[in-house]
Write a structure and sequence with these properties.
The protein is of the alpha/beta class and 322 residues long. It contains nine helices and eleven strands. It starts with 26 loop residues before the first helix and ends with a strand. The model has no long low-confidence stretch (mean pLDDT 92).
Length: 322
């Protein structure tokens, strides 16, 4: 287990300290949320850790060089049809049993936090992001919330049952993602597997049935300007580098309060292996300051939570100023 995680608020980045709108998130909450999906904790000098890191570096190097040489080709670019094909398959394969605590851990990869290496599943990261989202919403108390790129709806399902008085909407590019979410809504109550998966207690286990799921494109959102008090993304802009300006402009257009973006901002991936990995994957490369150009003023940010070894994510809270 992580031994250097005090029961105190997580650290914000130096440029974003002391803001009144900042959520209060306990580092211990995040550690507890992630722990069930850790396969094992290691030492950076362990042979198994070094071997896996080396194997992944070799893969990243190969893909990075290929992208540098052939990135101008459309086939090498992460365009909408590529994302749709990849995530249509992904959402069609995921069911409730995927989120079972104590089950087999799929897709274990190298993770780290505060100097502690570990092999873990990204299902733990979804729980960590859920804590960040809940604490942010509890602080800001929005009435209308939109998730852009909601996938199969897992974030919204859990949020709605924690905060049933909030009106939640999700927009998803893929037909399979929206279908998975709406099929899940046919159940009368949140199943026990997801009640256990929720990192914080739920207050209304039927509220997920009221979430409004839409299919749409982030570059042309099907909502009127200022429709939502809070708009958030969770590793959705990650997939939108090719439409980054349009997606950010649309996000800002429909926002009438705050935006909360949990994304691999370039500020966290500007050098070394994370930078090569982002280029290899053709992922989001926007900087935090870029939000200002769309009327979104960053007021708080943190990267103090478990991170993939080769892709660093930052949670950024911004205020919409017209």
């Amino acid at each position: 287990m992580l031994t250097n995680v005090p029961d105190s608020p997580i650290a914000s980045l130096p440029a974003f300290t002391g803001n009144e709108a900042a959520p209060v998130v306990s580092a211990q909450e995040l550690a507890s949320a992630f722990a069930p999906f850790v396969d094992r904790y290691l030492n950076a000098a362990d042979d198994v850790w070094r071997a896996e890191i080396g194997r992944r570096q070799k893969k990243i190097r190969k893909g990075y060089l290929k992208k540098r040489l052939l990135g101008w080709r459309q086939a090498q670019q992460r365009r909408e049809d590529t994302v749709v094909q990849e995530y249509d398959r992904a959402w069609s394969k995921i069911d409730v049993s995927t989120y079972e605590i104590g089950g087999d851990l799929p897709r274990v990869a190298p993770w780290e936090w505060r100097g502690q290496p570990m092999f873990a599943s990204d299902l733990g990261a979804t729980r960590v992001r859920q804590v960040l989202l809940v604490r942010t919403l509890e602080k800001l108390r929005p009435r209308r919330v939109l998730e852009i790129g909601c996938g199969n709806g897992i974030n919204l399902m859990l949020l709605s049952c924690r905060l049933p008085d909030v009106s939640f909407t999700g927009v998803e590019l893929t037909q399979a993602g929206r279908a998975a979410a709406q099929d899940f809504q046919q159940q009368a109550e949140m199943p026990e597997t997801l009640r256990n998966y929720a990192p914080l207690p739920l207050t209304d286990t039927t509220a997920f049935r009221r979430v409004d799921f839409r299919q749409g494109n982030a570059a042309e959102l099907p909502f009127e300007a200022g429709s939502f008090d809070l708009v958030y993304t969770s590793l959705a802009l990650e997939q939108m580098e090719r439409i980054r300006p349009q997606a950010l402009a649309e996000l800002a257009r429909v926002c009438n309060g705050h935006a909360f973006l949990i994304e691999p901002f370039r500020d966290m991936n500007d050098s070394g292996w994370p930078r090569r990995n982002v280029i290899r994957r053709d992922y989001f490369r926007g900087r935090i300051d870029e939000l200002k150009g769309h009327g979104l003023t960053p007021i708080w940010a943190t990267n103090d939570f478990p991170q993939e070894a080769f892709l660093k994510v930052c949670a950024v809270l911004a205020e919409r100023r017209r």
